[in-house]
Design a protein that fits this description.
The chain has a 5-stranded mixed barrel. The termini are far apart. It has 5 helices and 6 strands. α3 packs across α4. It is α/β, with parallel strands linked by helices. The relative contact order is 0.11.
């Protein structure tokens, strides 16, 4: 029994000595920790730079999209059909004008003649259309757009986009939006 205890003690002593011999020193542990901290810092810096680049790229894309939208709106405004011209075409030949415009979304420009609501309480704007003052372009808006129409006044020049519905006293445009 004594012999086995001495043998076990001897084996444990050898294992302990080997552990101490191969265990990293305090300096090695500190160096490893410092290396890992540097790698973590480098990884964090690289990630932050990537994220900043991505945000900058997204911002540049948004700016480019906004510039394209502004250009599209400016092009649409410059190509808008004059309200007087639209009314003239309908007065000259309603059948031809319906074939050309009815059911199509177009941009129209003109001077505000009136801002009001129809019998169903839907807001509209009429644009001066003919020199005789009988026919106009009546642009129908959704109720949610009333705040945009509140600042309009007669004589103001505006650009609108909407779908032509044909002629019923006035030339009707539905689903209108101010551009």
């Amino acid at each position: 029994m004594k012999r086995s205890a001495i043998l076990v003690f001897g084996v444990l002593s050898i294992l302990f000595a080997l552990t101490l011999a191969f265990a990293p020193s305090r300096k090695e542990i500190q160096e490893q920790a410092a290396k890992e901290a540097r790698e973590l810092e480098e990884d964090t810096q690289a990630r932050l730079k990537r994220e900043a680049r991505d945000r900058q790229s997204e911002a540049q894309s948004r700016v480019a999209e906004q510039q394209q939208e502004l250009k599209r709106l400016e092009d649409e405004k410059s190509n808008a059909l004059d309200a007087e011209s639209l009314v003239s075409r309908y007065e000259f030949n309603e059948v031809r004008a319906d074939l050309q415009f009815k059911g199509k979304e177009i941009a129209v420009q003109g001077k505000v003649e009136r801002v009001g609501k129809d019998i169903l309480n839907n807001p509209f704007v009429t644009l001066a259309g003919s020199t005789n003052g009988i026919a106009s372009v009546q642009c129908m808006f959704s109720k949610g757009q009333e705040s945009q129409l509140a600042d309009l006044f007669p004589g103001q020049k505006i650009h609108l986009r909407g779908t032509i519905g044909g002629k019923m006293m006035n030339i009707l445009m539905r689903n209108c939006k101010i551009i």
